[in-house]
Structures are given as structure tokens and as C-alpha cells.
Amino acid sequence: MRLDYQFRKMSWSDDLVDYLEERAFRLRKHQTKPFEITVTFTAGHNEHLVDMHLRSGDMKLRARASGETFYEAVDMALERMSRQMARKKSRIQDHKCHPNTHWEKVERWRKAAA
Q1: Which of 7, 12, 23, 47 is the most exposed place for a label (fewest CB within 10 A)?
Q2: Could you tell me the domains of the chain?
Q3: Whose CA is closest to 7, among 51, 46, 37?
């Protein structure tokens, strides 16, 4: 897992980076392939915005959250990213061929004709 950071309209914060690295460790349970997350912190007048982009092979996910503090926004963005990754993983694991595929129909016709 690789994390890249961008800070817009604010200065670099080691506390915020450490907090994100500690929390982002939870995302590893959803993915076995290496992935890269780009995190952008933007400070506005009344809000703190966190924008996350995850790239891993063919998978690209995005989560955006805003809150009163950056810590709150990081937690919300990581929760959204975690839900997206879990949904994607369950779709891949539960994927099965449809029972009425062409070749199964051909097999049933052969058995019926015999």
C-alpha cells in the first residue's frame, strides 16, 4: 500500500499524515493486490475536505468527505472507501455464470434428444 499526500490551501501536517496512515491500514483486509491511494486535503472557510483516489490494477475508486475537522473527514472518507472495496470484493467472489448459458442449454437439448 502506497499513500501519496497533497495539501491545498494549508501547510503539511505530520499529525494528520500519521493519523491517516494508522487508519488506512484497515483497507488492506479488502485487497490482496498492491494499491496506491492519493489523498488530497483542502482547507476551506468553514469545511475541511478530504478527497481519496485508490488505484489498483483495473480498479479505480474515489471517496470524498467533508467535515468540521480533518480527522472527522478522514474517518468518513475511509469508511466510504472501505464500503466500496468490500462491495467490489463481494461482486468478484460471488460472480458465477448464469445458469442458463448457451452451453448449458445445448447440453440439455442433447440429453433431451438422446
Answers
A1: 12
A2: 2-113 (3.30.160.100)
A3: 51
